[in-house]
């Protein structure tokens, strides 16, 4: 397989450039009988789409999804689901500057060296616009996980630059444009982002995603452990530079007696492991964090070279997100949903005969 | 594909349990003509093998590798390479306690729920012993990368519990049992580990791996980005809970003007991105960090349940590493080598015709 | 991977139902820099499209392909190529009969048992209409093979029912609606097909495909031998029941001294092996034959059951090909092209360093 | 994936050369809880092993299989199963002749052009000896299919040169060294083979394999149709040049009214389709035929070239099968078992929720 597919049994393959005709994807392996509509998928797309607040890019894309196959009379048929989103707001502009230079820290230089050719308009294939199709595919996975197994996928922005969410109020996440679960931080976030936009600079962010209601036993060691596939999925999102499962890097300084999650018949006593132990789900909440770098498309001039190797100064004009993390929560949720979906299918295939008589430990003693 | 293979073109598949007859692997897709011997592979295995210092498990395994196929007259032939390591120090002991209970935070519980059966002796397939074959396969990849492209793969322990390496002296890494690059920290590390062993507890660690001398252009966006595949590979190592590329989680608080790596004709001015931008290598050093949790096999009693769901108290006796990070550096190096090997092959396949006329920027201005 | 992708490095994934909104495909792994246009792809699609003679289904589909991504300024960029064909002639009709019964020997019964649901309109996903996207993807492969390596992919109908082509005149293949290379047989074919249509029955056919100008060395034993992948590709075409490489089933009665293709410095002396030996191309012409069954969509009543298991009599009305082999030549060519494309990429990846000094034997002594 | 793995969920990867240290394989994805022993696997290996009659090669290999992992207390654990067979009868001989020339119609020339290097001893990786591991892996699949689903896999030699089996008496198949189901043909076969051996020539054969007791619904259209994967599997066996499902090439001359398999509540009325329609199993017997070419390792001199391109005359001495078809029945059975195993796992993964209420039609009216 080349690199634009994800998942072994629930396989998502995408296409599309930032300023091309359309984005699209194919889902192969979706179970039959899942009730799904364009409207449901659209809900997740609307959460990701640009231009909904002044803190994101001002490109106006309705991101209207169209299902072309695989759904019949409102239900999936088990055959491939084709979906497209037509690009509508590709402003014609002068690309002569961007065409022959490489924005520092962008994919520009790598694509040029790799392929010897690139669609330079708006970043082409390397644009985060590509993630729209991940969200569309993830919406199908989410629906199945919820409907069939009661699994819930949620996410939030846990940090933006120096500002950390200190409360986790799930009801607040969708009440603000940042997906911030701590309502007390919203004024601070707004102020910070306003100042940032004026400065022409960008900032990093941290996103947290959680899956609840999962069964134990998902994951295919030794290489396709659930955490490994999840790290793959999350690190494949544009601008992600780090992935943590559970306590992540904090566990470097933890003792074993502190880190281990003790089990009792009434539930696990802690969840340092983020719901995955030995690469297999424990039934606790899956918790993962990602670090998103500050976008390099900024107004402040930076040093680079042109195609002939001459030094140039680059300023990125155009419409860009000053913090790509702001719209990233639905994308991370989508990737988590796709990974779980794929692993449920894989697990069922191999282990359909298993009837473990070992009691399932509740996710936590409080449940 | 099920879960015990890694790599699309350079594919490593492994088998073997901690206390079974043997460990083994098959490498499929190794280029022909690579000079390789059991002795060379053994060198890397010896770096990982247990029992070489008092800070690791006292199990005595020579980890002697045998090449069964794919190498003829000292060179790889392009056909599958089969390798085995026979287990020699599986002490017969009484497993009656471990058999019916689940060590907290171990793979025990997940395996039981997943498969309904498990080889409980020494952790079976979930034992870190499995990583020996990764090191063997990685040694072949390393040899090719070095011989054919001059790419060097190195690693070190950057932190153990609260003790951080503050100097990076590559020559020191192999002068101490910790793979620590900072000689000033060795006494502190020894003291810490001695106290830890006495306490019966365990501790986490951080490992850093670096690839130097790489070409730009490796990586297959959007899902098989180089960073995504690397995250997959590294997170698949036992006990890893976090992966960072370059600045990783530090970039959350960085501004775009600070994070971006500017290019000049004389070289990149920084390497915050860890050598990967837009999922594609830039030609700078690849730098990745992993967080390893404290092993849960400790002498301090912990709460758990047995197979019938009754509460029990578990104490893990036997031979265990108090810090699995101590022996993890060669494993992380191996996975990095395998990922790069696979991506070079994939890149060559698709882009054999490309002759980019864009000058290659030196990895850093200092080179 | 689920089942709607073909190829490891040059990967084609398709979607679409007979009477859905659209058909589509994604090509992942196409080398960059290939000059390709919708017009070129359309040429192959026009060779397959229905309704061009009275010997095929009278459904009128322009099969107009649209490229949505992956091609920029007339050249492939190395990123995924998305293509769609909108269905335009899906007659609304009464499906109440077909809905609850299973046409004998159709995919109907199997789909129902497999998925518990199916898009019954025109056969849904099991319709041969799906092959349009194979032809579109194959056109891209053909272009590359021709442009980059001078490899030519051709095909013809070698037999229809009892009528066998006895001459191979490549210039004639496109002068008749049957892709028959023997002009003397055209009147006979026309007469046969006219009688067949009147009888309401259908007939089988044999198609032969040939690749010329190939390099030796393609194929990845032991499982992904070139012949094995080709058999997979060709058998995956609707209605195919048999695949032969070279002499195929004739070799059962051949002696080794007769079958073996002797080599001389001036060329191979015969090509019984169809250009593949030991699973690897020899540089001779690849020759493969496929047997296509008579379609089961016929006007003659047949016994079947309905969804409740009751016996019913089924007559398939609607627009159908009386011989699906008539339009199958471009489809078989496309699959051959895709297989070769994929194998060239795979071969280059692993064996980029090989410089065999062994002289390449000409395909035949006559060249 | 490179080319030495077969199967997506039940994945078999093999290694080993004819005259190397050992052959081996890894099965990844075997369901847990399957009772399996070396003895059971050995039974199938003994059916394939050389030297059991004067009609096969006189190489004496016990083909003793050893299970190295994945089986614990007599049952599979769901983890990878590693198996090896050590080569014991690799006669040291003078390879100077074979080393620098290419046997006509052998893999020699292709391997040399592909890899630039080859293990020339006994054909190396291209030797049919490799198929021993397929048989070992197939034995595990057969056991599961039988034990869990009551599916039976059987095969026989249907033709050797001009001699066709005219009766199908399953009890006879294992009463003669040819796997011939027609006892009346044995004297003729013996006479033919004796004469053939004296002449120093070889002959082709046809093998038929059958799976009985299958459920409808297996197969993953459009590319991984059950027939397509089966064609891939069977064509990957050394010396196979043709694959037929059901009536195969006979259907070219069949009418649709003749070919279609009518259904009644009491069973299918015929099985022209070989148990697969639209790429999906119907529940009827799967029937497939393969054509095996005469081996090119014969005593009669043939024209070829050496490594420098000079014309040479080649005579293949050594121990060879005059008809590779004689030992091929267990190999073809093994590949059929592996394909079905893989498809059952894939089907269960995606369609675990399906509860079709449509009655299952008996395989035939006679059952």
Automatic annotation (TrEMBL), chains A, B, C, D:
UniProt cross-references to CDD domains, sorted A to Z: Chorismate_synthase
Record-linked Pfam families: Chorismate_synt
Keywords noted in UniProt: Amino-acid biosynthesis, Aromatic amino acid biosynthesis, FAD, Flavoprotein, FMN, Lyase, NADP
Catalytic reactions on record: 5-O-(1-carboxyvinyl)-3-phosphoshikimate = chorismate + phosphate
Cofactor binding description: Reduced FMN (FMNH(2)).
Gene Ontology CC entries for this record: cytosol
Cofactor requirement: FMNH2
Pathway of action: Metabolic intermediate biosynthesis; chorismate biosynthesis; chorismate from D-erythrose 4-phosphate and phosphoenolpyruvate: step 7/7
InterPro entries per UniProt: Chorismate_synth, Chorismate_synth_AroC_sf, Chorismate_synthase_CS
EC number per UniProt: 4.2.3.5
Key word Amino-acid biosynthesis present: yes
Molecular-function GO term, any one: chorismate synthase activity
Residue positions binding FMN: 125-127, 238-239, 278, 293-297, 319
Binding positions for NADP(+) per the UniProt entry: 48, 54
Oligomeric and partner information: Homotetramer.
Protein name: Chorismate synthase
Organism: Litoribrevibacter albus
């Amino acid at each position: 397989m080349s690199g634009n597919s994800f998942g072994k049994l629930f396989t998502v393959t995408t296409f599309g450039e930032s300023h091309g005709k359309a984005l699209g994807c194919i889902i192969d392996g979706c179970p039959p009988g899942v009730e799904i509509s364009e409207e449901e998928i659209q809900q997740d797309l609307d959460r990701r789409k640009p231009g909904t607040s002044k803190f994101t890019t001002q490109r106006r894309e309705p991101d209207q999804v169209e299902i072309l196959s695989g759904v019949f009379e409102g239900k999936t048929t088990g055959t491939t689901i084709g979906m497209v989103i037509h690009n509508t707001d590709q402003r014609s502009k002068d690309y002569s500057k961007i065409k022959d230079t490489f924005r520092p820290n962008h994919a520009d230089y790598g694509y040029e060296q790799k392929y010897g050719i690139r669609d330079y308009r708006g970043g082409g294939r390397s644009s985060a616009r590509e993630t729209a199709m991940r969200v569309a595919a993830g919406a199908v996975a989410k629906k199945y996980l919820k409907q069939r197994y009661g699994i819930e996928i949620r996410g939030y922005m846990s940090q933006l630059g120096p500002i950390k969410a200190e409360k986790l109020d799930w009801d607040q996440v969708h009440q603000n444009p940042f997906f911030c679960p701590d309502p007390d931080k919203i004024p601070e976030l707004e102020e910070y982002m306003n100042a940032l936009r004026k400065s022409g600079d960008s900032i990093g962010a941290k996103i947290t995603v959680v899956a609840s209601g999962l069964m134990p036993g998902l994951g295919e060691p030794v290489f396709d452990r659930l955490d490994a596939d999840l790290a793959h999925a999350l690190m494949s999102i544009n601008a992600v530079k780090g992935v943590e499962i559970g306590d992540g890097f904090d566990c470097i300084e933890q003792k074993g007696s502190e880190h281990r999650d003790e089990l009792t018949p009434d539930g696990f006593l802690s969840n340092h492991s983020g719901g995955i132990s030995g690469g297999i789900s424990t039934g606790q909440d899956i918790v993962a964090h990602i670090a998103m770098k500050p976008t390099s498309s900024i107004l402040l001039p930076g040093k680079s070279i042109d195609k002939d190797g001459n030094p140039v100064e680059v300023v990125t004009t155009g419409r860009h997100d000053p913090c790509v993390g702001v719209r990233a929560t639905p994308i991370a949720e989508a990737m988590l949903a796709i990974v779980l979906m794929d692993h449920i299918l894989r697990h069922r295939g191999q282990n359909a005969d298993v009837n473990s008589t070992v009691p399932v430990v509740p996710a936590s003693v409080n449940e």
